[in-house]
Amino acid sequence: MTKNKNNSDFEDIRKQINEMMKKGNGKFMFSPLSSLKQEPKKTENKENKENKSQEILNKIKDFNLKPREIKDYLDRFVIQQDEAKKVLSVAICDHYNHIRRSLNDPQLDDEDYVKQNIVLLGPTGVGKTFLMRCIARMIGVPFVKADATKFSETGYVGENVDDLVRDLVKFADGDAELAKYGIIYVDEIDKLAGTSSGGSRDVSGRGVQINLLKLMEDTEVNLISQTDMMGQMKTVMDMMHGGEDKDKKQTISTRHILFIVSGAFDGLAEQIKNRLSGSNIGFDKEYTDRYDDNIHKYLSNMRTEDFIKYGFEPEFIGRLPTRVACNALSVSDLEQILTESESSILAQYVQDFDGYGIDFALNKEAIHGIAQKASTEKTGARGLMTVLEQTLRDFKYELPSTSIKKLQLTDKGVSNPQNELEELLNKNKSQQNKHLKKEVEDFTERFKSENDIELLFEDSAVAKLVELSLKDNKTIRAICEQKFKDFKFGLKLISRNAGKKSFVITEKVVMEPDKELSTQIVDSFNEIKK
Q1: pLDDT of residue 363
Q2: Of 366, 445, 435, which Cα lies nearest the Cα of 398?
Q3: Is 252 a residue whose pLDDT tops 50?
Q4: More confident residue, 291 or 233
């Protein structure tokens, strides 16, 4: 049976290759399969990969986490979203407890089990993706994230949804056994529910929904795509050469892959509000449509009928039984992200400044100011990165070239960073001269190390370089490398002629380096003639 299937697969692939050759008008060069040499299989770190995969599989087989333990872990990285954390924690535990039971008792795998695939609703930047990344990292399973907008119904224009499963295998280092217990996360799923300009249902979006719902149940996905000709050819080669891969499983089951989809679902809250307005469950008229105050309240009352009316196929939304809405982030939440989250973007900036030997910190008022600015961006936690970059970019540019080793940013620095920077530089002027003089010393040390020639700068020459640095707003290194770019060649020539290993750099040499170098070279040749 297997042999006949392999022959059938071989014939299908051979036909595809012949078809490609015909379309290419004979320009497609293809050597006979018998003449192709198989590349040696990579064995480097193979044992380590296998051990790592087995370790994760054992962890899944012995899964014993409790929902509260998962939530406690998420609390370390994601601020707020308590309800989403609870829902996700329970769904994850139920899912992997079922996998644990089926792994320990294969007969249980035949039971009808409905996966708790999840829908996450909420605005951008509230932590939807990060929640799932943290969970996947905690458990250790492969995790793949993609945007729904890149897929097409057939896969000829956009990508095929089956590629999600194949990507999961790639993230599992090619271990299909491990990949089938992974997590697939599809963002912007609400874009598949759109309508065309004529008001009719988007056929392409509907097609992608149908293809996705097949994956979300229990289907077999080919590990090699039909459009992956190199992969197809390798399979043929393995069959013909009788390699060790001939019995390797060519498909992967999606039975135990957990699917999570998310989106902002713009307009859904208004739709739910309209549904509730005629019922006893409705909200008071004082509520407005501002996202941070009310949209979460409406989304928390979502029903399957709301998703269907929004544009989802009943079969598709039926495969997503676990649904939870995330809150928008307040100014206070953004402050907590900066100060309490273990994944805070602020830690990245502290490390950036530390790379230049600068101790960077924000006082309480500055943190509040950044959070307020980020809130106006309406991009959730992503707004923090935007505001921090705008606020600190000039500090990161200027301070590494100064003697300043501490930056304590205040609320004034957040509201007007340019003025704060100028004040800081003015206070540091006296120290800056010392710093620039030290840069001259650093240049002489580099020059001697690279050329075995010592430069002896007179005090007047150093003072002139410092003056030029402040005037032109350039580093001493840039000025010296520009002015003395030909000195390594010229001074080596003089050294050979006159046997000198050290040279005095005067203020005149700084001002007219080329002229002074030429004069010294001529003098060295004159000395030889004498």
Answers
A1: 92
A2: 435
A3: yes
A4: 233
CA 278 – CA 317 distance, rounded (Å): 25
From the CB of residue 320, how many other CB atoms can be counted at a distance below 10 Å? 23
Judge whether 402 and 428 are in contact, CB under 8 Å: yes
Backbone angles phi, psi at 310, to 5 degrees: -70, -25
Task: Give Cα separations from 316 to 1, 119, 166 (angstroms).
Answer: 35, 11, 21
Give the pair of three-digit tokens for residue 216: 């979300």
Q: Which residues pair with 146 in a beta bridge?
A: 186
Among residues 301, 297, 303, which one has the least CA distance to residue 284? 297
Q: What is the DSSP letter of 511?
A: H
Q: How many angstroms separate the CA atoms of 376 and 257, rounded?
A: 38
d(CA 477, CA 442) in angstroms, rounded, equals 8
Residues 6+ apart with CB under 8 A from 175: 49, 53, 169
Which is it for strands 143-147 and 183-187: parallel, antiparallel or unpaired?
parallel
Nearest to 282, CA basis, from 304, 303, 297: 297
Secondary structure, 3-state, 70-133:
HHHHHHCCCCCCHHHHHHHHHHHHHHHHHHHHHHHCHHHHHCCCCCCCEEEECCCCCCHHHHHH
Which DSSP category does 374 fall into?
A: H
- Judge whether residue 113 has pLDDT over 60: yes
For residues 210 and 312, what is the distance between their CA atoms, to the nearest angstrom? 10
**Model confidence band, residue 437 (pLDDT cutoffs 50, 70, 90):** confident
Closest to 405 (Cα-Cα) out of 382, 428, 386, 387: 428
Place of tokens 């020059």: 447
Give the residue with greater pLDDT, 39 vs 148. 148
How far apart are the C-alpha atoms of 1 and 24, rounded to whole Å?
35
Long-range contacts of 440-447 (CB under 8 A, 24+ apart): 440/465, 440/466, 440/476, 440/480, 442/476, 442/477, 443/476, 443/477, 443/480, 443/481, 447/484, 447/487, 447/488
Q: What is the pLDDT of residue 497?
A: 85
pLDDT tens profile 478-525 = 999 999 999 989 998 998 888 888 999 999 999 999 999 999 899 888
The CA–CA distances, whole Å, from 371 to 3, 72, 338, 363, 511 equal 64, 24, 8, 13, 50
This model's pTM is above 0.85: no
Residue for token pair 């921090």: 388
CB distance 181 to 140 below 8 Å: no
pLDDT (tens digit per residue) in 35-89? 334 444 444 466 777 788 888 889 999 999 999 999 999 999 999 899 999 999 9
Buried b (16+ CB within 10 A) or exposed e, 375-414: beeebbbebbbebbeebbeebbeebebbebeebebebebb
What tokens does 254 get?
A: 């999606």
